[in-house]
Q: What sequence folds into this?
C-alpha cells in the first residue's frame, strides 16, 4: 500500500477508520475489516486520479507546485532580498595594499513576501446501513467510490480554475490575471491560428525581444500559455515548407529559450484580456523558475475515513489547503492581448 491518501498513508487511513468504528454500533459488524480494507483501496485510487480537464496536461506543466510547506497557516511568509552593496568593479583591489577599509562591502536589503492560504472542506453522508450492507455485499462499495470520485472532481476542477483565474477576492490571483503585469497590445496582431504567414513570421521575430525588453534582458520565457482553440489550430501547415506552425514555433523558441520551452493551453485564455472580450485571447509569456513563480499546496487534498455521527449516519470529511500561483517577479511575466 504505497500510494498516499493526501497526508495519510493507507495504513494510517485504515487505522483511523478502524478506530472510529470500533466503538460504534457497526464496529462489531461481521466483515467490517474487509470494508475498511476495500474502502482504503478505493479512496487511494480516487485520490491519485486527476480529474483536470486540460486535455492531458497537468497543473505542474503550467507552474511549479510545492506541496506540504506551511500547513495550517493563514499565510505563507518568505524572505525576499535585494543586493544593495558595492558594485562589482569596487571589488577590484591592489594586491600589495592592505587595510580592510579598502575592501568593497556586500550587503542585502531584506523584504518579505506573504502568500494567502485558502482552506477548503467538503463532506458526504451515508447511512450506517450502507456499511453493514457493504460487509456482505460488494455493490455498496460503488456508492462509496462514486461519492469519493464526485468530491475529488469538484476539488480538482475548482483548483484548476483557481490556478488560471484566481478566486476573485483581491488576494488570490491566477496565471491569467496577476496584478501589475505589463499588458502588451501590439505583439499579437491576431489570434495565433488566424495570423497570415507574414504576421506569423513577424511574431516569431518579435516575441522574444518583447519579453526581453519587459525584464531588462535578465531571463527568457520558457512557457507560452495560449488559448486552446489557437493551440489546436497550430497543426495547419506554414508557408511552402510543409511543416506545421506548432513545429516551427517550438523549434524557433527552443533555439532561443532552451529545450524546456513548452506551449501550454487552456480555454480560460479567451476573454481574459483587459477588455474582457470573450472573442479575444490573452497570451502569456513567463518563466517557471521558482524564484519567479510558485504555487503552494500546504495541505494536499486529504479525505478522512468514514466515521459515525449520531445513531444512523456515517460522514466522510475531506480537506485541503492551497495557494494560487504567486508571482514573485512581476517582470518575469508578460501578457499579450489580442485587440
A:
Amino acid at each position: 500500500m504505497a500510494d498516499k491518501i493526501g497526508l495519510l498513508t493507507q495504513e494510517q487511513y485504515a487505522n483511523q477508520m478502524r478506530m472510529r468504528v470500533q466503538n460504534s454500533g457497526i464496529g462489531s459488524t461481521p466483515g467490517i475489516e474487509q470494508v475498511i480494507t476495500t474502502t482504503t483501496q478505493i479512496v487511494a485510487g480516487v485520490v491519485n486520479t486527476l480529474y483536470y480537464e486540460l486535455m492531458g496536461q497537468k497543473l505542474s506543466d503550467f507552474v511549479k507546485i510545492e506541496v506540504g510547506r506551511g500547513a495550517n497557516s493563514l499565510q505563507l511568509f518568505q524572505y525576499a532580498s535585494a543586493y544593495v552593496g558595492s558594485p562589482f568593479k569596487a571589488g577590484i583591489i591592489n594586491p600589495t595594499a592592505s587595510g580592510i577599509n579598502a575592501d568593497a562591502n556586500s550587503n542585502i536589503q531584506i523584504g518579505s513576501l506573504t502568500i494567502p492560504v485558502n482552506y477548503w472542506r467538503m463532506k458526504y453522508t451515508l447511512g450506517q446501513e450502507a456499511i453493514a450492507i457493504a460487509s456482505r455485499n460488494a455493490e455498496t462499495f460503488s456508492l462509496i467510490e462514486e461519492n469519493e470520485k464526485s468530491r475529488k472532481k469538484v476539488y480538482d476542477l475548482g483548483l484548476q480554475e483557481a490556478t488560471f483565474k484566481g478566486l476573485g477576492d483581491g488576494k488570490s490571483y491566477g496565471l491569467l490575471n496577476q496584478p501589475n503585469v505589463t499588458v502588451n497590445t501590439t505583439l499579437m496582431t491576431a489570434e495565433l491560428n488566424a495570423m497570415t504567414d507574414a504576421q506569423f513570421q513577424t511574431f516569431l521575430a518579435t516575441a522574444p525581444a518583447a519579453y526581453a525588453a519587459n525584464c531588462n534582458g535578465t531571463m527568457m520565457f520558457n512557457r507560452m500559455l495560449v488559448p486552446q482553440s489557437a493551440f489546436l489550430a497550430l497543426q495547419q501547415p506554414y508557408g511552402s515548407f510543409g511543416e506545421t506552425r506548432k513545429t516551427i514555433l517550438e523549434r524557433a523558441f527552443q533555439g532561443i529559450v532552451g529545450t524546456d520551452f513548452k506551449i501550454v493551453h487552456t480555454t480560460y485564455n479567451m476573454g481574459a484580456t483587459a477588455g474582457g472580450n470573450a472573442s479575444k485571447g490573452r497570451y502569456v509569456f513567463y518563466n517557471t523558475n521558482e524564484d519567479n513563480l510558485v504555487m503552494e499546496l500546504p495541505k494536499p487534498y486529504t479525505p478522512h475515513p468514514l466515521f459515525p455521527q449520531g445513531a444512523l449516519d456515517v460522514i466522510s470529511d475531506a480537506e485541503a489547503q492551497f495557494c494560487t500561483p504567486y508571482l514573485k517577479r512581476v517582470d518575469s511575466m508578460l501578457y499579450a492581448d489580442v485587440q
